[in-house]
Amino acid sequence: MKMFKMFGKRGFAVLTSMALCAGLVLPSFAASFSDLNNAINGTYQGNAFSFDDGKITLKEDVVNTGSEDSITIGSDKNVTLDLAGWKVDYSEKGTGSTIWVNGGKLTLEDSGRVDEDGEQVSGQVTGGKNSGVYVERNGSFTMNGGVITGNAGKDGAGVNVYNGAFHMTGGEISGNTAKNNGGGVAVGNRNMGNAATFTMEGGKITGNTATNSGGGGGGGVWVKNGAEFVMNKGEITDNRITGANCGGGGVGIHQGSFTMNGGLIADNTAARGDGVQVHGTTGSGANQGPGSFTMTDGTLKGDVTVVDEGGNVSVSVEGGNVSSLDDKYLDGKGLVDNGDGTSRVVTHGDENHTWGSWGDWTDNGDGTQTRVRDCLVRGCETSDSMTEEIPSEPTPPTPPTTPTTPDEPVIDLGEEEVIDIDDPAVPLAAGPVTRGEFLDYLWRHEGEPAAAAPDFTDVPGDHEYAPAIGWAQSIGILERVAPGDSFDPDELVTVAAVRDILIEFAEYAGMEMPKLATLMGEDDEAVLNCDEILAEFFGEEPAE
């Protein structure tokens, strides 16, 4: 820099030629924090940024060159900042936050860039000593991209929402270290009345650390004093909080609320509550209030622990997948092992069981046979059984001694005899049919009731039999034949599948399951006479 000042701008070209000839590496130059603040305020004169319809796009790194102020978004500003693969770096001499959202609105994006080695580079917000992004005075911060990394702070080293709203749809908050709580994100402040919210719709909060040696929490996210955190998508993984009395490696809740509607919390570490810790207190002071955790969906791998001072903690797990959960938090629910270290939360009670597969048939020695299935819910010992007559072996038809060719039938439908294939009264065709076709007959037989689209990965909305499958799933008659997330609609329907569907349908319709003499064969055999079976089931005449 001294050489540059000595030579001046005109002499810099000569210096450049000299350096290249000598094989020296020239220093790289960057825009200053003052440059970016001037750009935000509309007074910048230079080429470090491009401007397009209110968006500021970086064309080089932005570095604090002295004791410059933080990048500031005042209350009268609505700024979209595209990092474009460059850094906003406060680490040189700064003592505050890298970006200060002081009552305004900031949207952070990152279109990325390719460096001189051909590698894709992500933009960064880094070097903050009091958080990478600090939000207060009802400011609003939306993160759609970029990486907030390498920042420090007392609480919320990556992002600290003291008062305002944080909405995360993408990007990553990683590698930040908080002195107390919230290595990645802190939401809330000293007073219960000041609103602070965090909504997570995507992105990752990963690899952050909180070093509280007291009784705090939140290696990834810290929610405190009336703040609200709603997680719909995204990941909170590999975060940690140190200290023997600290909890909530993933999320720590201290007189705040956390609702998990989706996403993943996994592989976080803490002395207690690797996944989530909930802390609540009684009283009306600035730091007194309830703590709550509600889970409706998503996957939580790790413990849930409670620090309850005065009975002011609420934990409700209504759905999703968990790896470790005390049964006392399962009000009217149960856990079914997924086989991958997690269990899914299901409705469970005397009238609600999640059944396993049917066992093999056992001959009772009286012309009947029985098979049993068990409830899959952890701790439930309920079983279900089915007994039916052992079907006799069908007598094979006697082949004619002389092959004959039947006369081709002549069918006169007449002008008024057009068959409507959507008419529920039209019987199912003879011969093998698919699982989807079988449900389509039941659906048409019931008058084609409206239902939501099926929730199976292999049944798209435009599938031929999607309306029938969606209806069958909505009334609960597929729990035996499709306990997972796929249905195989185009596979031939088997003896076992027909039996299980009709059992569930009979229960749904409030009718007694008839003994079906026409349902014969091994469980895994394709059914060849669905028309006869359904006619017998409904007490109707089979199609001629």
Detailed description of the structure:
- The chain has 544 residues and is an alpha/beta fold.
- Helix content is 14%, strand content 31%.
- It is built from 6 helices and 40 strands.
- It has a 22-stranded mixed beta sheet that branches. Strands 5-8-13-17-21-24-27-30-33 form a 9-stranded parallel beta sheet.
- A hairpin with a 4-residue loop joins strand 38 and strand 39.
- Helix 3 crosses helix 4.
Summarize it.
With 544 residues, this protein is of the alpha/beta class.
Question: What is the residue-mean pLDDT, rounded to a whole number?
Answer: 83
Helix content: 10-25%
* Number of separate helices: 6
Strand % is 25-35%
* Secondary structure category: alpha/beta
Shape: elongated
Radius of gyration computed on alpha carbons: 33 Å
Q: What's the β-strand tally?
A: 40
Low-confidence stretches: 1-27, 409-426
The main sheet comes to: 22 strands, mixed
Distance between the termini: 97 Å
Topology (elements, then pairings):
Blueprint: H1 2-22, E1 31-32, H2 33-41, E2 49-52, E3 55-58, E4 62-63, E5 71-73, E6 78-82, E7 87-89, E8 99-102, E9 105-109, E10 113-114, E11 120-121, E12 124-126, E13 133-136, E14 139-143, E15 147-149, E16 152-155, E17 159-161, E18 164-168, E19 172-174, E20 177-181, E21 185-187, E22 196-206, E23 209-210, E24 221-224, E25 228-237, E26 240-241, E27 251-254, E28 257-260, E29 264-266, E30 276-281, E31 291-295, E32 299-300, E33 304-309, E34 313-317, E35 321-322, E36 333-337, E37 343-347, E38 362-363, E39 368-374, E40 383-389, H3 435-445, H4 466-474, H5 495-509, H6 530-538
Parallel strand pairs: 1-4, 3-6, 4-7, 5-8, 6-9, 7-12, 8-13, 9-14, 12-15, 13-17, 14-18, 15-19, 16-20, 17-21, 18-22, 19-22, 20-23, 21-24, 22-25, 23-26, 24-27, 25-28, 25-29, 27-30, 28-31, 29-32, 30-33, 31-34, 32-35
Antiparallel strand pairs: 2-3, 10-11, 35-37, 36-37, 38-39, 39-40
Helix pairs in contact: 3-4
